[in-house]
Amino acid sequence: MSNPHFERATKRLHDGTNNEVVRAQAEATLALAYEQRTANLIALFSEGFAGRGIDYAGLETQIRERLGLS
To answer: Among residues 31, 37, 39, which one has the least CA distance to residue 11?
Structure first.
């Protein structure tokens, strides 16, 4: 799975109407937030806070999906 917001932003820009360009800007912002969340998941996973109730298998699954590795 890749970043769905990036794909939508790209498509909206190709459509070219004023409304679509504004919507593409919103999708681009969401795409950045999506990428930041992925980076935060990776940082959390790599820190290894053992014993704090963190589901590392679930984190790994989310990271792999976001990076298109599953």
So the answer is: 31
**How buried is 16 (Cβ within 10 angstroms: 0-12 exposed, 13-18 middle, 19+ buried)?**
exposed
Q: List the domain boundaries for the chain.
A: 4-66
The Cα 66–Cα 37 span in angstroms is 10
Q: Alpha-carbon distance 9 to 64, whole Å?
A: 23
What the block records as the tokens of 70 is 């599953």
- pLDDT tens sequence for the chain (70 residues): 688 899 899 888 887 788 989 999 999 999 999 999 999 888 888 877 655 777 888 888 888 888 888 7
Question: What does the alpha-carbon distance between residue 2 and residue 49 come to, in Å, rounded to a whole number?
Answer: 27
